[in-house]
Specification:
- Helices cover 55% and strands 13% of the residues.
- By secondary structure, the protein is an alpha/beta fold.
- The chain has three domains: 32-267, no CATH class; 340-429 and 522-605, 3-Layer(aba) Sandwich (Rossmann fold), CATH 3.40.50; 443-521, no CATH class.
- A six-stranded mixed beta sheet has the order 10-11-12-7-13-14, with helices on both faces. A four-stranded antiparallel beta sheet has the order 6-5-8-9, covered by helices on one side. It has a two-stranded antiparallel sheet with strand order 1-4.
- A hairpin with a 2-residue loop joins β13 (572-577) and β14.
- The longest helix is centred in the middle third of the chain and has 27 residues, at 201-227.
- The chain is elongated, with a radius of gyration of 28 Å.
- The model has no long low-confidence stretch (mean pLDDT 87).
- Keywords: ATP-binding, Cell membrane, Membrane, Nucleotide-binding, Transmembrane, Transmembrane helix, Transport.
- It is a multi-pass membrane protein.
- InterPro entries: AAA+_ATPase, ABC_AA/LPS_Transport, ABC_transp_permease, ABC_transporter-like_ATP-bd, BCA_ABC_TP_C, LivM-like, P-loop_NTPase.
- GO terms for molecular function: ATP binding.
Length: 605
């Protein structure tokens, strides 16, 4: 698939250069121009909604910001359209940052409602400002001049629109195939997983919101100088919904889906506007009804959009002419990432000191006390509802403490981590897996593991995003992928690193999560029910792996229900019931403890 897309870029570039030179009707040029303009906006929505998992209905307002900024500067002040582009991007960036800092904190249905609110606000702002001509808008916008050529017609604007679209597609692809790109893709897998790998999810959401807004602004700039006039109508909520529809129809999770969806809907809308009034005997926006029905059918039958079907069909047809797609390859000579020094064996690295967690009047964890030492496997067991998962979430920063303290060994001393967020805790050397596997199913095994190395490379988010777009991060990117490959070899999954993570068996997925956690370079590994759902042989292989890691100096704290697995693996056991510790000691001692036999084990010999 990657090979097919690479060839597609060159095919598209050739078409861009040749199409306006062909004796095609001007109407075709106009349609192609609008497809390009819409695709630039839809591309931002692919990044924001399809990849990042955040629905926005307000992108048309950012198109308006780009259009009006350039239109006003060029008509009222006589500035160059290129200065208008710069001004529009700066204004859009500032507005998107301010809006994003508020809106991106929302979740569930509140997020799309929030995008509708600010989209409508900007729309009415355009229509009520005297300097922007109110609802009549601005006319007499000058044409763009490029290298001495005046782009004063649709045919002359064609190449500029489509070259910008192609560059935007390449830029977004470069971004998504990088360290910050993996962090962006991890957002859709859930904030808990991303934060546990060290991703600042709030900051990353704002960054992609600003990128999507700036793409919309560029489209608005092109639109203003193509039409040579602007008014608020194209920047309202209806158009915002249509942009989102284009991304969804094409394939919201696929970069090229933005272009496909824009083309399909633009061409379909043109045909429906000609056919429906004749069939119904009346004029009106009847195509909106058809679009609504199509969206319902699409969500029922093809939620990933049309692009995946087209890609599979094209791949089958051209398979004989295309070289084999070998996936992401690790280049030889990658620099080895720095690793932290492991503490001496038997050093206390985790200390739970009267840890307490209350939810209102419910005490889920009641003054828990235990320790984990370096090179030790400690099991945390207990019946359902005992508070194990809550205790686990307190250690990993998912939940804040209500009382007591949790200390972790870092830089030669125990330091309090009880109220640190997950992304700060993983920096200190705590890696984790999840009770319910949290992988990005459509990403390769190698890329899933590389997410764990997110904090192993340093750099500011904004500058790193720019570096990724320009492909100036190849060395560090290769080092991160090499580290992911090394961890896959460590756990015995290197032969599957190019496979999609979602295609692996459950046992392999759990091992994959351990490899991802190891990529964080932890001194303590926290595993939440790692043997759940595994067959007997898979449990044996998992136990062998964990013993191997312990022998390498790794400390492990695991929550588990399988008593045979725990008894044969752990060096030390802590037993909980109703949030309280009822027993602690060697597995053989705990197995015979009266309180444990009564509460949980049921008299296991």
């Amino acid at each position: 698939m990657k090979t097919l897309i690479q060839h597609g870029k060159w095919v598209l570039l050739v078409l861009i250069l040749l199409f306006p030179l062909m004796p095609v009707p001007e109407f075709w040029i106009t349609l192609a121009n609008y497809i390009g303009l819409y695709a630039i906006v839809a591309l931002g929505l692919v990044l924001l909604t399809g990849v990042g998992g955040m629905t926005s209905f307000g992108q048309a307002a950012f198109v308006g910001l780009g259009a009006y900024s350039s239109a006003y500067l060029c008509t009222a002040l006589g500035y160059s359209p290129w200065l208008g582009l710069l001004a529009g991007l700066v204004l859009t960036m500032v507005a998107a940052f301010a809006i994003g800092m508020i809106t991106m904190r929302l979740s569930g249905h509140y997020l799309p409602l929030g995008t509708i609110a600010w989209g409508l606000s900007l729309f009415f702002l355009f229509g009520n400002m005297e300097i922007l001509g109110k609802y009549d808008g601005l006319n007499g916008i000058p044409a763009i001049t490029l290298a001495g050529f005046k782009l004063d017609s649709g045919r002359s604007m064609f190449a500029l629109i489509w070259v910008i679209l192609l560059l935007a597609i390449i830029a977004i692809q470069n971004l998504l195939q990088s360290r910050p790109g993996r962090a962006i893709r991890a957002l859709k897998g859930g904030g808990v997983m991303a934060e546990a790998m060290g991703v600042n999810t709030a900051r990353m959401k704002v960054i992609i919101f600003v990128i999507a807004a700036m793409l919309a602004s560029i489209s608005g700039w092109l639109y203003a100088h193509l039409q040579r006039a602007v008014n608020p109508t194209p920047f309202g909520l209806n158009q915002g919904i249509e942009y989102l529809f284009m991304a969804v129809v094409g394939g919201a999770g696929h970069v090229w889906g933005a272009l496909l969806g824009s083309a399909l809907l633009t061409l379909l809308k043109d045909k429906l506007q000609s056919i429906l009034p004749v069939l119904l005997g009346a004029n009106g926006n009847f195509e909106v009804i058809v679009f609504g029905v199509l969206l319902i059918l699409l969500l029922q039958r093809a939620r990933d959009g049309v692009w995946p079907y087209l890609a599979r069909w094209t791949r089958r047809i051209f398979a004989a002419w295309l070289p084999e797609d070998k996936g992401i390859q690790v280049k030889p000579g990658a620099a080895v990432l720095n690793t932290r020094t492991k503490p001496a064996i038997d050093t206390v690295i985790l200390e739970i000191d009267k840890a307490r967690k209350q939810f209102g009047g419910l005490v889920a964890v009641n003054d828990m006390q235990f320790t984990v030492s370096a090179g030790q496997i400690v099991g945390l067991i207990g019946p359902n509802g005992a508070g194990k998962s809550t205790m686990f979430n307190l250690v990993t920063g998912v939940l804040p403490l209500s009382g007591g303290a949790i200390r972790f060994y870092s830089e030669g001393q125990l330091r309090d981590i009880g109220n640190l967020p997950s992304r700060e805790i993983v920096k200190l050397g705590i890696g984790r897996s999840f009770q319910h596997v949290r992988l990005l199913a459509s990403m390769s095994v190698l890329e899933n593991v590389a997410i764990g190395a997110h904090l192993r490379a340093k750099g500011g988010d904004v500058m790193e995003v720019m570096s990724s777009i320009l492909r100036r991060d190849s060395k560090i990117e290769n080092s991160l992928l090499a580290e992911a490959q090394r961890q896959l070899e460590r756990v015995g999954l290197s032969h599957l690193m190019q496979e999609e993570a979602g295609s692996l068996a459950l046992g392999q997925q759990r091992i994959l999560e351990i490899a991802r956690a190891l990529c964080c370079d932890p001194t303590l590994l926290l595993l939440d029910e790692p043997a759940a759902g595994l067959r007997y042989k898979e449990k044996q292989e998992l136990a062998e792996l964990l013993r191997k890691l312990r022998d390498e100096g790794m400390s492990i704290l695991l929550v588990e229900h399988d008593m045979d697995f725990v008894m044969n693996l752990t060096d030390h056991l802590v037993v909980m019931e109703f949030g309280t510790k009822i027993a602690e000691g060697l597995p053989q001692e705990v197995q015979q403890h009266p309180a444990v036999l009564e509460a949980y084990l049921g008299g296991i010999d």
